[in-house]
Amino acid sequence: VEGVKDVRSEEHCPNECDVTPEYKDPSAPVVSCSGLTFLYDRDAALHDISFEVGKGEIVVLCGPNGAGKTTLLKLLSGILRPSSGKVFLEGELLDKRMRKRIFQYVGLLCQDPNDQLFCTHVREDIGYGPENLHLSAESVRQLVDTAMELMEVSDLADRPIHRLSYGQMKRVGLAGLIAMKPPLLLLDEPSANLDPASIRQLV
């Protein structure tokens, strides 16, 4: 997309811990779709969608309300099942079996961070995913510290979630995804309801 910087040119991780995505198959597209269709009752929200996104690419999905943007993201993250067509994550078919380990491939930032954050404090929420991967306490700490530093929320580590602003909640939600190191990050209207300063901090 014109005007969007390439993440491959970014500097290395600023912390001891590397949060570079862990690609299962570096030679395969991160995500690809073939003939993807989704129906709400009899109305087609998406019809015959086919595309692929490679490693390191940034894609901006634009369209009016009701165009099917959120529906597509939910299909790519396994929340919804397509009426027809297929989704492949790093060359592997997204099916019932893969949905059980979808967190290894996809991180979805919800449009409303209230739907995403559920722990009491910031550090606890960001560390929830890595802790459930049965990593060592030190590995979890490094992942959380690095994700917080990248999203500029280190000063909020011990703050209760309910005392965060809307923009801070979005950055904490994204930090939680970064800490999981998924190959594919999906952001659902990340700039919605944010002021210009908050948008710059988020993206």
What's this entry about, in short?
The protein is 28% helix and 18% strand. It has helices spanning 69-76, 96-99, 122-131, 137-150, 166-178, 196-202, and strands spanning 31-40, 43-53, 84-89, 92-93, 106-109, 184-187. It has a four-stranded antiparallel β-sheet with strand order 2-1-3-4, with helices on one face.
What does this protein structure show overall?
The protein is of the alpha+beta class. It is built from six helices and six strands, in the order E-E-H-E-E-H-E-H-H-H-E-H. A hairpin with a 2-residue loop joins strand 3 and strand 4. The longest helix has 14 residues. The N terminus is likely disordered.
Characterize the main sheet: 4 strands, antiparallel
Radius of gyration: 17 Å
Strand/helix succession: EEHEEHEHHHEH
Low-confidence sequence ranges: 1-11
- Number of H/I helices: 6
Overall SS class: alpha+beta
Features:
6 helices; two-stranded parallel sheet; disordered N terminus; 203 residues; globular; single chain; four-stranded antiparallel β-sheet; alpha+beta
Give the topology, please:
Layout: E1 31-40, E2 43-53, H1 69-76, E3 84-89, E4 92-93, H2 96-99, E5 106-109, H3 122-131, H4 137-150, H5 166-178, E6 184-187, H6 196-202
Parallel strand pairs: 5-6
Antiparallel strand pairs: 1-2, 1-3, 3-4
Helix pairs in contact: 3-4, 3-5, 4-5, 5-6
